[in-house]
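Supplementary Note 3. Input sequence used for the single-chain structure prediction.
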Amino acid sequence: MKIRVIGGGLAGPEAALTAARLGCEVDLYEMRAMVDGKPRLTPAHQTTDFGELVCSNSLKSESPNTAPWLLKQEMRRGASALLRLADASAVPAGHALAVDRVEFSRLISEAISAEPLIRVVREEVTTLAPDPVYALSILATGPLTSDALSREIERLTGSGHLAFYDSISPIVDAESIDMSRVYMAARWDKGTADYINCPMDRVEFDRFLDALLEAEAAEAKEWEKLDYFEGCLPIEVLARRGRDTLRFGPMKPVGLRDPRTGKTPWAVVQLRKENLRADSYNLVGFQNHLKFGEQARVLRLIPGLENARFLRYGQIHRNTYICAPALLDENLRLRKQPRILFAGQLSGVEGYTESIASGLLAGIYAAALARGEEPTPVPRSTALGSLVHYITHADPKDFQPVNITFDLLEPLEEELRKKIRDKKERHRIVCERALAAFDAWWVAIPHPAAELRR
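The predicted structure, written as discrete structure tokens, is reproduced below.
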């Protein structure tokens, strides 16, 4: 019997490729498709490609002994298909892993096409009723789950589902950036100097902030509740929290000394490459919900962007997720309907890497279940296990999606914490412990791990 994977974003293809490499037949459903020569898309997507990144192109830090690095290291050891493709399509981004979004999607599509056990079905799934064709279903429809499937999930879970709203950062044409006004650097000189930094003095910052606070927001649509995720707030929302909020957030100048003056600016806007050609850059952390004309007016107040050509403006889109602590077990199965697994942002994780990670686990768990085995959950002491532990054990009353952080991982024993005062050393030990636990789990679980190395 087959496994049905619903969703062609990040978690879905990862789950499909993982289950297929473990010997399972997989039908991968994606509602975005070409219909009568025209693309049928979501409110945020621009293509029908697998793995399209609608926000940033960054999979976060590669600095050793950070939480995002740890998660990716576990995924690499677990032979994550999409992380391998992200590495293959990486663009220079200092100490972060960022990808050429077009090449990344192309490689994912190529991998899916090359896998003989995966059949792609370009149609919308609207019912989750038992189907004799499928032993299991993995729901990975992401933040833009269709209205029809959302209603079906609500019916199936009996407890409803939650939603918050995310914003997309603008992208500018590289040729329109005035390079005489900016400088190249990475924060604290970590990694290579791949970021364009637009420095502001206090007068320039105050002028920008006043314009931002006065800018007109885009018109809200009926489905918008504007219940934003705290980790991805629009810049205008941050600005309203205080005049220095942006300077301690996305415009933080710390560690970005201007080599031309030897001084640290009052505020900095960072631009990150979108692709290897370096012909476009996104404004890091500048997601917003302003009218396009207002965005152009305000963002052109940033030094170096006075004549910027915007290839994409910031936008808002719906981000749907279930109340996982009330619904899922540690194998990502719906407790009341164990033939259904959830993965990706729909399951309550937040972020590209976290979504891929949950897809990896869902694929491994589903393959075990299809073989008639009970999956062995990844250990709590790992980054992967900590992420799943949070979404399945948090308080359902105020559950919110989460990125991987050290706060989620098991702390060191009290005696060791008292002995080791240095935070970096503590993090190193936590990472060392997590990777050892992951390796032990990986060797012990009953699946042909060698197959995942293909």
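The chain has two domains: 2-163+319-453, 171-305. The domain at 171-305 is CATH 2.40.30 (Elongation Factor Tu (Ef-tu); domain 3).
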